[in-house]
Amino acid sequence: xxxxxxxxxxxxxxxxxxxxxxxxxxxxxxxxxxxxxxxxxxxxxxxxxxxxxxxxxxxxxxxxxxxxxxxxxxxxxxxxxxxxxxxxxxxxxxxxxxxxxx
Length: 102
Hints:
- This protein is of the alpha+beta class and 102 residues long.
- Helices cover 31% and strands 17% of the residues.
């Protein structure tokens, strides 16, 4: 077997925090925190971002957009008459959260 290999399964709960730590002189770190887990996604070289890192970030963003669309679709199909007065995903109304842009 060559290249990267591994498997991680994380079940996100209401206590999950998702953040992106951006720094002026190093690559960003995407963090997913909840319960007893801390998952950090970062570029391969601490002080350098290359074309592969940008391509990986784009692929990650594209996959997250599909994940969001599917979550919203399933939520609306299974909660057709739910009107809480807030947008789906409004973490302030739904529970504790940290601003994803922080």
